[in-house]
Amino acid sequence: xxxxxxxxxxxxxxxxxxxxxxxxxxxxxxxxxxxxxxxxxxxxxxxxxxxxxxxxxxxxxxxxxxxxxxxxxxxxxxxxxxxxxxxxxxxxxxxxxxxxxxxxxxxxxxxxxxxxxxxxxxxxxxxxxxxxxxxxxxxxxxxxxxxxxxxxxxxxxxxxxxxxxxxxxxxxxxxxxxxxxxxxxxxxxxxxxxxxxxxxxxxxxxxxxxxxxxxxxxxxxxxxxxxxxxxxxxxxxxxxxxxxxxxxxxxxxxxxxxxxxxxxxxxxxxxxxxxxxxxxxxxxxxxxxxxxxxxxxxxxxxxxxxxxxxxxxxxxxxxxxxxxxxxxxxxxxxxxxxxxxxxxxxxxxxxxxxxxxxxxxxxxxxxxxxxxxxxxxxxxxxxxxxxxxxxxxxxxxxxxxxxxxxxxxxxxxxxxxxxxxxxxxxxxxxxxxxxxxxxxxxxxxxxxxxxxxxxxxxxxxxxxxxxxxxxxxxxxxxxxxxxxxxxxxxxxxxxxxxxxxxxxxxxxxxxxxxxxxxxxxxxxxxxxxxxxxxxxxxxxxxxxxxxxxxxxxxxxxxxxxxxxxxxxxxxxxxxxxxxxxxxxxxxxxxxxxxxxxxxxxxxxx
Length: 605
Known about the structure:
Elements: H1 20-24, H2 27-50, H3 56-61, H4 68-79, H5 82-95, H6 101-122, H7 128-142, H8 146-195, H9 198-206, H10 245-262, H11 264-271, H12 276-289, H13 293-307, H14 309-312, H15 317-324, H16 334-342, H17 347-382, H18 388-396, H19 400-406, H20 422-446, H21 459-462, H22 466-487, H23 515-519, H24 542-551, H25 563-573, H26 580-604
Helix pairs in contact: 2-8, 2-17, 4-8, 4-11, 4-12, 4-17, 5-7, 5-13, 6-10, 6-12, 6-26, 7-8, 7-17, 8-13, 8-17, 10-22, 12-26, 13-16, 17-18, 17-19, 20-22
Protein name: Sodium/glucose cotransporter 1
Organism: Nannospalax galili (Northern Israeli blind subterranean mole rat)
Keywords: Cell membrane, Disulfide bond, Glycoprotein, Ion transport, Membrane, Sodium, Sodium transport, Sugar transport, Symport, Transmembrane, Transmembrane helix, Transport
């Protein structure tokens, strides 16, 4: 398509439209979607019956036997939800490529994950945005009732997550990563071909201006419908930019460090690795894949605005309501519209599978990680003498939604030095939460506003850019943690070995803080004579055997380990040493990843 013949006023939305969901109701698309679900369930069932799910370590940490490539794929799939496809593409359509810089920050952060992971290994929230984004796509593509579609997806996802454990989640994540990447590359190729290549893409995006900008009663400011002059720059003005460069570099780094270095979903996958070299390689693989969303999601969203300018770039509330039912704009449907309108039969079904894969991978990650937190951090305190079978059942049938909130309080984010104490960390967390929620309440009360109708929220509360607000909040919380820690009694080092950075290499035995409480528990009488008798095993019925097989509760536990064997196994599981050759290989790849990320920033700066 020659750029000189292109006109932004002629779009796919000018002619009478067939409902978008009717385009998907053909044999080719439906067949692809059915095949997708069959393959996902097959992989999930294979993982269920080929791995040991009968122990706590096998269920929650995949037996610590995972190699680097499924770990990297699972990290990527756990992070990339349907919110990325909808949100990144929509923001790209509205304001350009700067939002893609968020993803490149992660490529640098993935190298830092390794440092934090050593602390976890040595120490022995459901995503409503993703559900909303997936609902947008499902409703647009299939015309299904949103709530029915979500219930079906949750049921299928929960089936192999609850029964298969982390191994099933990681292997299905790997499959879904492959589906997401293949489908996204195909759509990106179609999109750039349709728009005429990269040079034409740059030129046409700057001219993607809707023709309907006034309805007689409403006059719209030009900046509300004209692409930003800095649309193809990542680093934007620190005062007037929609994503200021200091906020991108420092504010986003703070947020990414929290997610990638301390979030249960990420850490749990890393802990499932065979050794530290596989952890590093998996994180680096994920870092490389995080370079792709700029091209596969952000730029495709911008192309959607070029091809369907009147729909994606609408500014009049009446027009936006007609296209997407939202008066403030329709950029959120940029990616789904491109899929439904541009892709041929069959490939359209593949892209719907991509969106389902991104949603399901995020849900499986949350389900399994929340289950781990509930079972190991809460249930074991309620039932201190719970058997392994009891822990397995509790982990499968806990209340996931509640645990996703509890996870916010479960991670040792502040264990950097002995100078940071529990009291300081707790009150720093509380103060930061109160400051953050005060802004959230104000924005809910006054609204975030739009280009046409700015918010009335007081400038002192809402006038600070959210990335700058993250920096301010981090500094206030850090100062609070440090001050209160200095004013309170320090925790003896004997309780902190291998739990903070300065004591990470300690070899001494650590004594848990609640050890005294456990010692005070009632002990059996000393004069009791224990007789080792073998209790005859009752014969199980067919239904009970099928239930145990499906849930992995009938697998052999193996012979009981001696004390020496238990110590050797513990040493192996907490060992962070590496073979020199592989340490050099992964470290060099980490440096290459950092160099590539810096080059990308410099090229698009």
